[in-house]
Amino acid sequence: MKQTGRRTFLRLIAGAAVSGSVLDGFFRKSGSQQLGPASAQNADKLKLGLISDLNGSYGSTNYSNSVQRGVSLLMQQQPDLVLCAGDMVAGQKRSLTNSQLKAMWAGFEHSVRAPLQKAGIPLLPAIGNHDGSSQQHQGRWIYGRERQQADLFWGQHRGDLQSGFIENERFPFQYAWRRPGLFVVVVDASSANVDSSQRQWIESALSSPYRQPDDLCLVMGHLPLTAFSEGRARAGECITNSQGLAIVLRRARVDLVISGHHHAWYPSESMGLRLLSLGAMGSGPRRIIGSGVISPPSLTLLEWSRPSGLISETTIDLNSMQPITADRLPVQVDVAGFAQARRRSLQWQRGSLI
Ligand SMILES: [Fe+2]
Question: Which domain holds residue 130?
Fold first, then answer.
């Protein structure tokens, strides 16, 4: 995003004028509409849609109005790629039958994935606890059928992502994916347990010879490394032993760690890493810890210009369809037993250390 566009954005959010045309105006003036699949060959610019937590109530096969508005916005904005940090369907209930699970994924295909794919916008998934939790009991998956159905669904669509796979043996649960200018490692953080073998795999994936020194390097998983929202600051809601994993990610110079699950948009720095907790696209807004801020349904657009190395994030409230300013977020989120997270800038330089 150019500085002029940024200034326009700040003026817009500071002003009282609120109308449907404001968002259009912001993206038009920032030049964002020029990016997208048409620029797929242009590795100098990249625009990503970042979404998470779409699911409705258990077994639901359709999606809330905010999800539908979000998909429409993505179609309009034409990012090169959408990354989804999990909870695409409404599982994690053992009484759901296989046909119900299949119907939920068919609903996701109909409402979200297929429209984006038809518009030339591939979707990279991370598996959430409602998609196929990795929670185990006595060495066995508690939600094994859900993981099987998630595997079947994404197996049918892996061809749409084929050109970018670096490592896909355990797709969609953990994999590495690349396109010019971008290197993505997706981890199975569908429960708090990211075990030692996966940590070794993450370390190895991040040191892949296919990763280029100037790639924007993103790591995405459903559960976050630390707590952001009320009701989620407890065991099972964040990755266990996150400090150890943070060391691995920091050493590998990961640019951004993206998570969902906490239903709270909070761009932060923590443990020497740059984090992005995504708001829920669907229902279940949550209050950010230590503040009065309830995070509305939202999605985030990330734009990166390789020549300047500048990354710019814009998060849209899917109720008002307005960009959300970070100024209203608490300066820090600090809760006993979890790493402190400090609010960070939405514009940053790739490769800059925290
Ligand atoms: Fe979740």
Answer: 35-318+327-349
